[in-house]
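#random but structural
TW: two for the price of one
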Amino acid sequence: MTPIEVQKIQELVYELKIGDIMTRRVFTVAPTTAMREVRDLMRDHRISGLPVLADNNLAGIISIQDLIHALEENALDAPVSRYMSTTLYTMSERDFAVRALSVFAKTTVGRLPVVDDDGRLVGVISRGDITRGLLKALEKVYQEEEIRRYRVRHVFEDIVSDQTSLILRYDVPYRDFTRAGRASSQLKQTLNRLGIDPRIVRRVAIVSYEAEMNIVIHSTNGGNLVAEISPDLIVIVAYDRGPGIQDVEQAMQPGFSTAPDWIREMGFGAGMGLANIKSCADQLHIDSWPLPGTRLEAIIHLNRPEGKGTDEIEPNR
């Protein structure tokens, strides 16, 4: 099970209500019922516990462990009241599955009676019910996700035009490290929802993150990150309103950085940004001027998941 699946299950535990996953068809016995009948009910219906009702009120629980105890004492003709447990933990239909799991973890009980506001039995919840409920809910989530991805993935097929593309624009503020990485993260999320090859998504994520961080660190008035997605390629353009790059070839060297020391101390500005972008892009174009700033364009072809390294660097202006 992947970490994402584990996380989703944890979320569902806090969303699933007991009333949606509990067993509603409940076999019950009375305090006067013989343990022999308990044995037959458990065997015939493959259940390991039965609520005990007295005058339609919940009086206790009889479990398979109690039945084993009766068998050891050769007391199958004894009444249920002799062996049942009267220590009861009850649930409401409105409770979430996580509450039942908490009780299961703290006690040895295997099932919990579910009662209404008047205390009347309406069902039981077991670990198995929760497991089946989670799997069913998870399956529904995956089905809905696949349907959504299919619809988004075929969006270009449903639009009639000579050239179709999807343009995403993100504003990147200057020196706002609390929001740094937000644009590239949202772009990655969008590409995943479009069903883009994960290898392509990874390359785009690296390019967009490094370009975004360059804007955060080096611009003087922020900038923009724009991604244009078409059926054949993804074009990422980063606009940096700043002082520009004095020497593009030098800036492309791994480890070269003009970031001040205080930014380096924060863990940014290591001088690998442009080098990482170059290694992930199929084509790279950089235009930089002293006053307007820098325009970086990275192109990634969708039919080259691993990339081919056909980089092109435009000279500094």
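TW: number two ↓
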Amino acid sequence: MIKKNRSKRSTSILFWIIWNMARSLPLPAAARLLSAIGRIMARQLTRQHTIRENLAKAFPDMPPQKVEATAKNVAANLGVVAAELCHIGEFCGGIANGRLTFDGGENLKLARNGPVIFVGTHQWNWEIAPLFYVENGVDITLIYANFGNELLDRTILAARQKTGATYLERRNAVRAAMNILAEGRSLAILMDQRVKSGVEVDFFGRNSMMTSFPARLAVRFGCPIVPMDMERRDGHKFHMYFRPPIHPPAEAAGAEQRMTQAIAIEFERTIRRSPETWFCNKRRWPD
């Protein structure tokens, strides 16, 4: 217990130093600094062995040297994510000033006529995504998980809330999510990480468990699921892709599995496009 408390205290101190350092610098300088820190301290800040294992299984033809380099790039991208989150206020109003652009607006606009469940992966900067909804008039609630460190959780949530979106902690999500959809509002969920329970899908040619929670909600409330994908462009600009909706099938039997498999296919395409930004920090395919 004493060792665990010391570890949490050390993590809090390191986080406080890096966070405030990044806030004191202009965004481009903060991003370069934290990207370098992420790359240099990749083993301390991320589970590099796990990331390499996931990449090797997802991309069996990728040479070991490239797997290692890509894993370090994942840590470097995490540093940029942190810098951009520190400066997230600078992205507000991005739809109007052209810093945030998107394709598939007709799929985003579905949320104006009823609830939609938006799903995505931990790629590029997932913390920027809420601005695309809020600044397009979508009443959105994002489901997230705490880190288990009071300082990190409090600081990061305060930064996230600058987007104007509503945030719902995962442990309190089930009933609240149903109430949100029943009221005609929308949800956003990142669901690329492995879970202990769910449905089995084919993901990169391997059997994998993926949460069926979004599909179950979609079937219950008759609402579409819209996969999302983004990319970072020069000057810390972001472009979002709202993919075609996945609608609940007419046949209820096996609907959750079929919808979740359709999501997995979209996620695989997204990850293949930029594996160096996929934060796969948990074992996706356990032996």
